[in-house]
Design goal:
single chain; alpha+beta; 33% helix; 7 strands; Aminopeptidase; 195 residues
């Protein structure tokens, strides 16, 4: 079995859409009501990858999971914060793949210069809460009854990790494109595939 964690391309959109769809249709993990098409997923990927990495887990040429960072909130003062998300197919859940993806994502976000990373988790979702804890994130709050889906109200937990020290004059976070040739960036990608 050949396993790879790599940066996403637009060719991965259909596979990512297929992995994400059951979270929309069958669970309250996502508060979306209709799963995005492959074209919509490609649009989102392109937009998000201007800000943060989108990582793919591939086994024997098949995409089985992904993790990405996105803007935490749209207002300018939030630009040093990013939200992390991870989705896996059932066949690779509980095998440490989410942890591998998450650790690499966090390291790349740190290298970009983000100050904080958040996970926003609709409850109940013990797997995502365990993953956030394994990654070193701390639960910092709950927004009660934030979404109504599948006949129930769902709370949302917020998890946080500081990536870089909070300084009084923070440099602007770099884009993935600006970072992809950095030796530390390349070393992090290599280490994720050796571990």
């Amino acid at each position: 079995m050949t396993e790879t964690i790599r940066m996403a391309t637009s060719d991965d959109a259909a596979a990512c859409a297929a992995i994400y769809a059951p979270s929309v249709t069958d669970t309250a993990i996502s508060f979306e009501m209709e799963p995005p098409s492959a074209d919509e997923m490609a649009r989102r990927m392109s937009e998000y990858m201007e800000v943060a990495p989108w990582l793919i887990y591939e086994s024997d040429g098949k995409v089985l999971g992904y993790a990405y960072g996105s803007k935490f909130r749209p207002r300018a003062a939030y630009r040093w914060c990013v939200e992390a998300s991870t989705y896996l197919t059932p066949e690779v859940q509980s095998r440490g793949i989410g942890t591998r993806l998450g650790r690499l994502l966090i390291e790349l976000l740190r290298l970009q210069g983000f100050q904080s990373v958040y996970s926003v988790i609709a409850l109940p979702n013990p797997a995502s809460e365990r993953l956030s804890e394994k990654l070193g994130m701390k639960r910092v709050g709950v927004l009660p009854k934030s979404g109504f889906k599948l006949g129930s109200w769902h709370d949302v937990a917020q998890w946080h990790m500081e990536l870089n020290p909070a300084v009084s004059d923070p440099p602007e976070p770099k884009s993935p494109t600006e970072c992809e040739t950095l030796p530390k960036w390349q070393a992090a990608l290599r280490a994720a595939n050796e571990g």
